[in-house]
Amino acid sequence: MKDNFDFERIWESKRTLRERLTTAPTIEKLRMLDPLHERAAAIRGARFREATAAQEKPGGYGDRKEKTS
CB atoms < 10 A from the CB of 46, how many? Predict the structure, then answer.
């Protein structure tokens, strides 16, 4: 499969976004975080559901007996 990535176009897009973000008002930046937060929560939820099936409970302090001489 041939790579269809135009890295110059990607880098230019990133530069443009960074420039826009430097001049954007704080409220706009905060609005951009909302969908990112929702996506991160969905990913965390999927990971958590998968991990709970084989998750072990950590031991607490004092569970380990010390050797005496």
Answer: 10
**What radius of gyration do the chain's Cα atoms show?**
23
Q: Write the pLDDT tens digit of every residue in 2-58.
A: 567 899 999 999 999 999 999 999 999 999 999 999 999 888 887 665 555 556 676
Domain that holds residue 39: 26-50
In a domain, 6, yes or no: no
Give pLDDT, residue 51. Answer: 52
Calculate the alpha carbon distances from 35 to 2, 28, 32, 40, 41 in Å. 32, 12, 6, 9, 10
**In contact, 29 and 21? CB cutoff 8 Å:** yes
Write out the H or E segment, with its range, that includes residue 9. helix 7-23
Residue 62 lies in a domain: no
**pTM for the whole structure:** 0.44
